[in-house]
Design goal:
With 215 residues, the protein is of the alpha/beta class. The chain has helices at 15-31, 44-50, 74-79, 96-109, 120-125, 148-151, 153-163, 177-185, 195-198, 203-212, and strands at residues 2-5, 35-39, 55-57, 84-87, 112-117, 133-136, 168-171, 190-193. It has a single domain (2-212), classed as TIM Barrel (Alpha-Beta Barrel), CATH 3.20.20. It is built from ten helices and eight strands. The structure holds SN-glycerol-3-phosphate.
């Protein structure tokens, strides 16, 4: 599985988000692989209308209908057609209670959760909340040129042992098919990435290479 987090990159915002999401759909169809995208809340509706592959929110808040100005309501994310939400990304950290409650709310409305962790141990500590996926990303490698698979492959092996391969995504600095191949070989189910695609001159070519790394 490849999940691209569009973050707030200009190349992946508003009309650009739709264009980039369509490229993800093309590659998913051409290579018959599981590719998903996580877009900003304001782009969810348009992106979901434009593509068939699963779309995630980058965050939800553990609120319900009512007086919660400025929050991202799980019911609204579900109603617009999103498959799930990322939670606790290192750029959007949550305290443990808030994370637990957010996962519960996601389950109540039927959203798939990708919960981020900064270490394998932290990821394993989230198993008690029963998220669908746990994405381990060493924060110091996020957005950098050296991938987790090159700099710290032992993190992936350790995470696979502690978390189990079925739930495990890894990320940080993932840029090419070779990185993906190593992540899978070391026990991950897939990768979570951003800049390798959002900063690429030819995102389709990069995504094709990444997707080939899955097999
Ligand atoms: O959510 C994905 C992420 O934080 C990794 O970012 O730019 O290192 O692929 P990047």
């Amino acid at each position: 599985m490849i999940v691209t987090n569009f973050k707030t990159y200009q190349s992946a915002t508003a009309e650009n988000a739709i264009k980039l999401a369509k490229i993800h759909q093309q590659v998913a169809e051409e290579l018959n692989v599981d590719i998903r995208v996580a877009v900003q809340a304001v782009d969810l509706a348009k992106v979901i209308d434009a593509i068939k592959i699963p779309v995630f929110a980058q965050h939800i808040d553990p609120v319900g209908f009512g007086s919660h100005t400025g929050h991202i309501l799980p019911e609204a994310v579900k109603a617009v057609g999103a498959q799930g939400a990322i939670l606790n990304h290192s750029e959007r950290r949550l305290d443990r209670e808030t994370l637990k409650h957010s996962i519960e709310r996601a389950k109540e409305v039927g959203l798939t959760t990708i919960v981020c962790a900064e270490t394998p141990e932290e990821g394993a500590s989230f198993l008690e909340f029963d998220p669908d996926y746990i994405a381990v990303e060493p924060p110091e490698l996020i957005g950098g040129d050296i991938s987790v698979s090159t700099a710290q492959p032992e993190i992936i092996e350790n995470a696979a042992k502690l978390i189990g391969g079925d739930k495990l995504l890894v990320g940080a600095g993932v840029k090419n098919g070779k990185d993906v191949r190593i992540c899978i070989k070391l026990g991950a189910k897939g990768v979570l990435l951003a800049s390798g695609i959002t900063k690429a001159e030819d995102p389709k070519a990069v995504l094709m290479d990444l997707a080939r790394g899955l097999s």
